[in-house]
Write a structure and sequence with these properties.
about 300 residues, alpha/beta, Rossmann fold, 6-stranded parallel sheet, 3-stranded parallel sheet, 10 helices, about 15% strand, globular
């Protein structure tokens, strides 16, 4: 029996409708319009595409959105000054600096300069620390999106054996941390695997829920998972081009074979991807509430 397909496209659409209503209510009741600024340095095509999508989504939800594109030669000093300007701008509640940055700019220094109260990407060490402690904070968007997909699909995490493949600061570590916490969507027993893990198959075959964020196309095959596993595939890998010039994408999981064993699985594209921008918008609305004293 083929798996239930967990559609990030449909889930993200539902959350955006909720946010659209919330944004309208904030404007009507409190004369408050959430504001987001995205800062892009250089002309990386992928980054340009991401920023444009974020900007479009914000406008569709009624969020005030500003997009700043800087020359690739922009100095670190000038970028830090711009971030500080938006730290002090009352119309802006969320600041996002699109990564990666040019090599002459220290990414950590830039991320640390963002006001933690406006860090809607959840990358500032203050928010990372609060997340580790289980305190109220901005959760990183992709891990948060993974949790929302599980919860809104009715998948129980409490007591589940969860295996996370990948130890990045953006996905692997935070998703593992969130799923082990004593909270809704957590309470799982979590194993974190990576490139130095011995006998990866031993761990993947034990998983009730498998979250794969390794960045390797089709690395997980059907013989590496057990019957009934729930699979969250975070990977987005370009594996070729179609005749029409469109990129052919694959996840980190071999979808066609694994879906025949899984009870539920996210597709690529259309799985975790749409959730990331949606959770960014959710964080921006949360930031506006907090900075305006409504939370």
């Amino acid at each position: 029996m083929s798996a239930k397909i967990i559609s990030g496209t449909e889930t993200a659409k539902a959350i955006r409708e909720e946010l659209k209503t919330e944004v309208a209510q904030l404007k009507e009741k409190h004369d408050l319009v959430p504001g987001l600024v995205t800062i892009l340095v250089g002309e990386d095509p992928a980054s340009q595409s991401y920023v444009a999508a974020k900007n479009k989504t914000a406008h569709n939800l009624g969020i005030h959105s500003e997009q700043i594109t800087l020359d690739v030669e922009t100095s670190e000093e000038d970028l830090l000054a711009l971030v500080d300007k938006y730290n002090n701008d009352p119309k802006i509640h969320g600041i996002l600096v699109q990564l990666p940055l040019p090599k002459h700019i220290n990414e950590a220094k830039v991320l640390y300069t963002i006001d933690p109260n406006k860090d809607v990407d959840g990358f500032h060490p203050v928010n990372v620390g609060k997340m580790m402690l289980g305190e109220q904070c901005f959760l990183p968007c992709t891990p948060h999106g993974c949790l929302e997909l599980l919860q809104r699909s009715g998948i129980e995490t409490s007591g589940a054996e969860v295996v996370v493949i990948g130890r990045s600061n953006i996905v692997g570590k935070p998703v593992a941390n969130l799923m082990m916490q004593k909270r809704k969507g957590g309470n799982a027993t979590v194993t974190l695997c990576h490139t130095r893990t011995k006998d990866m198959d031993f761990h993947t075959k034990r998983a009730d829920i498998l979250v794969v964020a390794a960045g390797v196309a089709n690395m997980i095959k059907a013989d590496q998972v057990k019957e009934g596993v729930v699979v969250i595939d975070v990977g987005v890998n370009r594996i070729g081009m179609s005749k029409t010039g469109k990129a052919i994408l694959a996840g980190d999981v071999e979808f066609e074979s694994v879906k025949e064993k899984a009870s539920a699985i996210t597709p690529v594209p259309g799985g975790v991807g749409p959730m990331t921008i949606t959770m960014l918008m959710k964080n921006t609305v949360q930031a506006a509430r907090q900075l305006s004293g409504l939370e």
